[in-house]
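tool=predict chain=A
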Amino acid sequence: MSEDPNIPESEEFREDELSSEMNVAKVHGSIMREQADPRDGYEPISLWLITFSFALVFWAGMYLVGNSGGFSSEVFNANLVAWDGSGAAVDKGPPDPMIVGKRVYTQYCLVCHQSTGLGVAGQFPPLVDSEWVLAREWHGDNHVVKVVLNGLQGPITVKGNLYNNAMAPWGGVLKDEQVASVLTYIRNEWGNAAPPITAEFVALIREQNADRKEAWTQKELQAIPRAVIDASAPPAADEAPAADPAAPSQPPAATAAPGA
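tool=predict ok
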């Protein structure tokens, strides 16, 4: 204790107490650095849980490597299913073009032509009862395939109504099977009724127009003879089919392009 009469005893007591607390803090500080007291929610993760997590991640990676097919869209086969209970793939035959076609239509065509197939008045032509879709008058199956592959631009007439918009080309996005399916879908939906379009027919027209880069116009397509698909023997894409003498003659008319 200080002998200085000018320092109160209470202050001297506080200095001694503070000095003792500092010494205790130093001692406990070194101990705490070596091992902290456990607290709820801060317990270390069990070693077995860490090991299991890494093993699970490793197994998942190996499974993806062995079963992803390189994440290629060419690998998936819609014809195979594995829900028969045995775990083995079962061949259910070729996929229904109406199901595949609806999927393609919903992804690429619905925005313009709507879920009803009626399009948007004054902007996008309807597909319901469309001369282009159903290959009526001067229109052929080859024309509707050309439009989907290369697109359409400029003024067109649809069921007597004029449209002047542009349709994007989908030949670089859709495969022959997808083009055939979406055309088969729009030709048999909303009350439409027309023979299905085959992938072979689409491939033939794609090959014949492989060098074309720009979209078609109605005038260009009207100058190309119509070709109607025959499931038994598809005609050449730009070859006019033999005339049916029993069929009534129909004057050419300008109509709309289908969307897909």
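The longest helix spans residues 9-34. The CA atoms of residues 34 and 135 lie 85 Å apart.
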